[in-house]
Amino acid sequence: MTKTLNVAMLGYGFMGKAHSNAYAKVAHFFPELETRPKLQVLCGRDKAKAEAFAKIWGYESVETDWRRVIERDDVDLIDIGTPNNTHAEIAIAAAKAGKWVACEKPLAMNCAEAEAMTRAIKEAGVPNLVWYNYRRVPAIALAHQIVQEKRIGRPFHYRATYLQDWTIAEDVPQGGATLWRLDKDAAGSGVTGDLLAHSIDTAMWLNGPITQVVASTETFVKERMHQESGKLQPVKIDDACMFLARFANGSMGTFESTRYARGRKNFNTLEMNGEDGSLSFNLEDPQYLSFYEHTRQDTGSKVEDHLTGWRKIHVTNFEHPYMDHWWVPGCTIGYEHTFVNTLADFLGDTEKGQRSRPDFEDAWQTQKVCDAVLKSAQEQRWIETGVDA
């Protein structure tokens, strides 16, 4: 028996498109789900743009004030795809109104907001989701499976990079509807919240809590014109960030992110080294997971010397995570499918009455690390993250 979930999408930008596609496609590829999303309301500040977006994607109606959306009886889920400085107020109001809440990352501007949002969600007892979609890349999900199967053994190292190059030019403005990520008042931080939040979430999912960090940040272009005021203003976000980390399991981590890596468009990598094996992944080649097996998990013996070496696994077989819902083996899926996979897990878990992750609680823990990174960069010392063990 199916049931309709009336969705209100707040925002019509990049994430509005990615989320709308997931709502539109999830029932086609995960037909076992009882819940059927319906594109009920599209909300955006610019009515003409909102109406154009709603027409393309098939939303039933348009609003320009998120408060009216939350008041509507024909809305079950509020999806927050707006700039970071709006997340807290919207999420708390939606939770108090008894709505399901989905929110883009980073969850909040800072840890205090994230805590307040998480507590509001818990008090309301509503299903909730934060769109850390890279957990649902099949290759990364396979990496998690391999770690859970103890094929890596005792972990020693975790390293992550997230590199882009789109803000190198000094004439790129800040602020406004399109470049709010460069405006600290709207974004909260630069690459730390926008890019490294993804890396941190993935790292803690694979390797457990990050307990300590020491960091350094840099802003290469100190002033940019603001799109809305037309005035030259100081740039207060971080263009680049690097930090060292210690995990609760005793392993060490290195993280680097920048928007000044010429030629890198969305270079998101991870590597994990353990006593019995290693893993490596690159989002720009997402259908592959590289795995080095030193010790066979089934026998506990060392792999024969003439067979050692990195194994490049093409993650498209039906036995790989999520792939039995897509195409035949050998056919890859892309970026947009990670949102469909994320939504399918969220709906399926909610139908079963179980916690679906990553949720607000998980995103709050990630925010703790982000805040500790920025504090460490400012104070130039090791900082305890306070992440729950």
Q: What would you note in describing this structure?
A:
The protein has 389 residues and is an alpha/beta fold. It folds into 2 domains: 131 residues, Rossmann fold (3-Layer(aba) Sandwich); 249 residues, Dihydrodipicolinate Reductase, domain 2, CATH 3.30.360. It has 10 helices and 17 strands. A 9-stranded mixed β-sheet has the order 16-15-14-13-7-12-11-8-17. A 6-stranded parallel β-sheet has the order 3-2-1-4-5-6, sandwiched between helices. Strands 9-10 form a two-stranded antiparallel ribbon. β4, α4 and β5 form a beta-alpha-beta unit. α1 packs across α9, α5 runs antiparallel to α10 and α8 crosses α10. The two termini are 40 Å apart. The relative contact order is 0.16. The mean pLDDT is 97.
Average pLDDT, all residues: 97
CATH class of the largest domain: Alpha Beta
Query: And the CATH topology of the largest domain?
Result: Dihydrodipicolinate Reductase, domain 2
* % residues in beta strands: 15-25%
Secondary-structure-based class equals alpha/beta
Tell me the number of helical segments per DSSP (H or I, 4 or more residues long).
10
Total strand count, please? 17
Radius of gyration: 21 Å
Main sheet strand line-up:
16-15-14-13-7-12-11-8-17
Calculate the terminal CA-CA distance, rounded to whole Å: 40 Å
CATH-assigned homologous superfamily of the largest domain = Dihydrodipicolinate Reductase, domain 2
In the CATH hierarchy, what is the architecture of the largest domain at level 2?
A: 2-Layer Sandwich
Largest sheet: 9 strands, mixed
Low-confidence stretches: none
